[in-house]
Amino acid sequence: MKRLFFVILFAIATANLYAQYFMADTVKLNATYRELLKHPESKEAQMAYFEAFPNTWMEYIVTYQFVPDDKEGRKNLYSLGHKHMHAFEYKLNLIPDSSYYKKLVNIAIGARKDADAPSYLQGCVKDHMINHSEEILNALAPLRKGHRFEFWEFYFSNIIAVETIEEELNRLVELHKDCHPEDVQMMKDAFKYFYNGVNQSSVSYLEAD
């Protein structure tokens, strides 16, 4: 009986693990994307695309990552990643802010710095942070500290020093130090450890001293 219990427990855990690596419904995603381009001001078209778009980092990266070893041709949407993210960023103006930023934050949690799809996502988050940082922090507010820190880790991750990123930290600190002191401290910590020197996730080796 005990053995059966552990077998069932292992099966459930394995199923949950693999579920995290499923890509989005690419047929539905492509169909709603085309419909959105045809009817950009339709609330129904915007909502359909918004709902079809990946909900988590794992779903997002499996859908849009580069897969060079697929001998039968890539089955994911790597070649459409930039266009899809552009639509997600600029063509969903009728989606309520609370829903939009909750989803954007959720996708960014756990994300890793890299070229292409991760870069498109990071750019989208940074662009929205310019005028909607309060909405983003409100979306972060109910989440666990660890998840919130993961968001700021991705936000400030960069391979080299860039003056504009340093200016962005100072802007956010000044803007939110009174109302969101805990998140401001997370920003500073994430900036300290993940800005200027972080590896891209595709780099799997250690550099020699």
User: By helix and strand content, what is the structural category?
Assistant: mainly alpha
Number of strands: 0
Helix coverage percent of residues? 55-70%
Head-to-tail CA distance between termini: 54 Å
Integer average pLDDT: 88
Shape: globular
Tell me what portion of residues adopts beta-strand conformation. Answer: under 5%
Radius of gyration (CA) equals 19 Å
Order of helices and strands: HHHHHHHHHH
| Major sheet attributes | none
Label this structure with key terms:
209 residues, mainly alpha, 10 helices, 65% helix
Write the layout of secondary structure elements.
Layout: H1 2-19, H2 26-38, H3 43-52, H4 57-64, H5 81-90, H6 97-108, H7 117-140, H8 145-156, H9 163-176, H10 181-194
Give an account of the 3D structure:
It is a single chain. This protein has helices at 2-19, 26-38, 43-52, 57-64, 81-90, 97-108, 117-140, 145-156, 163-176, 181-194. The chain is mainly alpha-helical and 209 residues long. The longest helix is centred in the middle third of the chain and has 24 residues, at 117-140.
